[in-house]
Amino acid sequence: MKRRLTNYTDGVLRYGTIKTKRNEFKEKIGFELNESGFLFFNYKQIRQQDEDIFSSGKDQSSNLKVETYYVPGIDKQIHKAVINGNYYEIEYIDLSTDRKNMFWYLTKEGVLNEV
Q1: What are phi and psi for residue 12, nearest 5 degrees?
Q2: In angstroms, rounded to a whole number, what is the distance separating the alpha carbons of residues 63 and 55?
Q3: In this prediction, what percent of the chain has a pLDDT beyond 90?
Q4: Which terminus of the chain has fewer Cβ atoms in its 10 Å neighbourhood, N or C?
Q5: What phi, psi does 51 have (nearest 5°)?
Q6: pLDDT at 75
Q7: Cα-to-chain-centroid distance, residue 14
Q8: Per residue in 85-115, pLDDT tens?
Q9: Cα–Cα distance between 49 and 44 in angstroms, integer?
Q10: For 11-114, which CATH superfamily applies?
Q11: What is the pLDDT at residue 114?
Q12: What is the pLDDT of residues 15-34, one digit of tens each?
């Protein structure tokens, strides 16, 4: 049986840590991503089971689920994701059973997107 490869063509997800940009008066003027890496992704539909897993009752402005190839070492507590200039919190990362793919559950960062 031939192995089927997935082409991720919907976009590019950049991930890393966030650094606050400040002016000479130490006022917050924006945010900058210290990029750890990037992955190509496909959008996925959020199922009811997915909502039950990562919905914590918070007021969430946007929910997004994307699929990428597996990359070890991504910490949802430290890293943020950026897609098309929008910053997202990583709520949950689900690995496929064969550990070849990752499903990212993202919530739009209200504070970061206001700047």
Answers
A1: -120, 130
A2: 9
A3: 42
A4: N
A5: -60, -40
A6: 81
A7: 8
A8: 899 999 889 899 998 999 999 988 665 554 4
A9: 13
A10: Bacteriophage SPP1 head-tail adaptor protein (2.40.10.270)
A11: 47
A12: 999 998 999 998 988 888 99
Q: Which two tokens stand for residue 29?
A: 């003027």
Q: Which helix (H) or strand (E) holds 48?
A: helix 48-54
Instruction: For the chain, give every domain's residue range.
Output: 11-114
Token pair 């007021």: residue:
59
Tokens 């994701």 belong to which residue? 81
- Share of residues in the chain with pLDDT > 70 (%): 78
Rounded Cα–Cα distance for residues 81 and 18 (Å): 9
Radius of gyration of the CA atoms of the chain, in A: 16
Task: Give 72's Cβ-side CA count (13 Å radius).
Answer: 1
Task: Specify the residue for token string 């709520």.
Answer: 91
How many other C-beta atoms can be found within 10 angstroms of the C-beta atom of residue 48? 8
pTM over the 0.90 mark: no
